[in-house]
Amino acid sequence: MATPDPTARLRFREMDSADLDDLAALLGDAGVMRYYPATKTREGAAAWIRWTQGNYARYGHGLWIIETHEGAFVGDCGLTWQQVNGVPELEVGYHVRSELHGQGYATEAATACVEFARGHSEAEALVAIIHPDNRASERVAEKLGMVRVADDLGESFPRRVLRMPLRRSPADAS
């Protein structure tokens, strides 16, 4: 399966059951999961891996493990189909270890995923679905070129939806 191209500091690979310890720590971290309804248990992290592997099989993409070129675990980042107000949308999502927040890893990984989506997806647009209090994640989406277009009302709280086109128009090329 194809993955996004490596960046200056990061590489991508498929998520598998050998990642359970790292993902359980990541998704069980209250700082990482601050804007989710709850942290994930070890079984929740195992279910996350199974869900991701299902996305690989069904769509040819999903969340990938992001790690340094030396192999240190950074988090996950990738492309998943989500429902936004009842409409399927391709989302770029990311989780980075708490101690690495603020170092640009989410932006770097998400930028590579945008480029991957342009070359490997039929989607016309890419979204980020963000808790209204998660300003840091919203800034990442804005750095990608996304703008706020709506609120998703499908959860117990409204989530901000930022969007960007994946297909460049001929006017963009000039």
From TrEMBL:
Classification via SUPFAM superfamilies: Acyl-CoA N-acyltransferases (Nat)
Listed GO MF terms: acyltransferase activity, transferring groups other than amino-acyl groups
Coiled coil regions, renumbered to chain: none
Source organism, top-level taxon: Bacteria
InterPro entries: Acyl_CoA_acyltransferase, GNAT_dom, N-acetyltransferase
PROSITE patterns reported for this sequence: GNAT
Residue ranges of domain N-acetyltransferase in the record: 10-169
Gene3D superfamilies: 3.40.630.30
Any Pfam family: Acetyltransf_3
Protein name stated in the entry: GNAT family N-acetyltransferase
Species of the source: Herbiconiux oxytropis
